[in-house]
Design goal:
This protein is α/β, with parallel strands linked by helices. About 35% of the residues lie in helices and about 20% in strands. The two termini are about 15 Å apart.
């Protein structure tokens, strides 16, 4: 898919700021430091999301309009231990409100750090997305950090933990090298065309 335009719409820190569900949304969710913002920038082929070496930097729901047709939604990372309990509770509340709101077309791109593998938090998030009956694509980020000989085994383990029947359903992606970006765009385009 060719990106012709990107537009930052808003950052939302409480449910009153959430946008309506009229446009299709591709929602990016994952643990803190999984590389959500870096992946968004790689997909857009330009800097649209702020990146940082500090985990937990995204502390709001950020909306971006892509090609005037659909939205990317960057959720705060979950599991960031250095945030206060109150901050984590507020993030969980707004994310829950966002995901439970009725919506015409929404797909979740669940990001898992390929170097770490799927954690208990990733598993809980995956179960939540399934419970909400949200279409989901699982992406193993930072795949360039996994040795070639260990990749297939790591992807199989991620699929197993997240309850995916087909290990090939986990897309191996590196925002640094561009590996898997085309395949992820293909999954997004198929969802938008459906």
């Amino acid at each position: 898919m060719k990106i012709e335009s990107t537009e930052f719409l808003r950052s939302v820190v409480d449910p009153t700021g959430l946008l309506d569900g009229e446009e299709a949304e591709i929602v990016f969710a994952g643990r803190s430091n999984v590389g959500k913002s870096t992946l968004l920038n790689a997909l857009a082929n330009r800097k649209i999301a702020r990146t940082s070496g500090t985990p937990g930097r995204t502390q709001a729901i950020n909306y971006f309009r892509i090609n005037g047709r659909f939205r990317f939604v960057d959720l705060p990372g979950f599991g960031y231990a250095r945030a206060s309990k109150e901050s984590r509770r507020q993030w969980a509340e707004i994310i829950g409100e966002f995901l439970r709101r009725p919506h015409n077309r929404r797909m979740v791109v669940q990001l898992v750090d390929a170097r770490v593998g799927a954690t208990a938090l990733d598993e809980q998030a995956g179960e939540y997305f399934v419970e909400l009956d949200l279409p989901r694509v699982v992406v193993a980020t930072k795949i360039d950090g996994v040795k070639r000989g260990a990749r297939a085994r790591q992807l199989q383990e991620i699929a197993r933990i997240l309850g995916l029947e087909n290990p090939a359903a986990v897309l191996a992606v590196s925002a640094q090298t561009g590996e898997g970006i085309r395949e992820l765009w293909k999954s997004i385009a198929e969802f938008l065309a459906g």
